[in-house]
Amino acid sequence: MIQSRAEVTVRYAETDMMGVVYHGNYLPWFEIGRTTLLKELGLPYRQLEEQGYRLPVLEVAVKYHRPAVYDDTVTIFTTLAEKPLLRIKLTYEVRRGDELLATGTTVHAFIDRSGRPIRPPAQVVAVFEAAFARAAGAAPGA
Predict the structure, then answer these.
(1) What end-to-end distance do the CA atoms of the chain give, in Å?
(2) Is 16 a catalytic residue?
(3) Which tens digits make up the pLDDT trace of 74-98?
(4) Is the pTM value of this prediction over 0.85?
C-alpha cells in the first residue's frame, strides 16, 4: 500500500453563502492528492503527459461526513492499495486534524494520446513495483 498526504487551506471561493465548502470542490482536492502521490513516486503527471499518457477519471465517489469551512486547513490522505494493471484505483480521506470530513475513490485508466486504453508503460510499472516493494519491506513483521 502506498500513501501520501497533502494540505489545503479552504479558500473563500470554495465555499457557499454559509461558509461551507461546496461539495464539488472535494474533487479538485482529490486531484491534488493524486498528483502529489504520483509526484512523490517520481511520476509527475506533467512528465506522463509529455510521454503521451493520460489518466482520465472513469469513476468517482464521495461520501461527506462533516463540512469543511472557510480557512480550515484540511489534509488529503491518498492511498493506492493495489498495483495498477489496466486501471488505477485511489482512495481518499479528507481530514481537519483528526476529524474525518469526507472519503472517496477515483478509478482511472491509462490511455495514449489518441484516447486508446493501454497498459501502463514499463517505466511506470517499474516505479509502482519498487514503491510496493518498499512499502512491504516497511510493514511490521515483514
Answers:
(1) 13
(2) yes
(3) 999 999 999 888 899 999 999 999 9
(4) yes
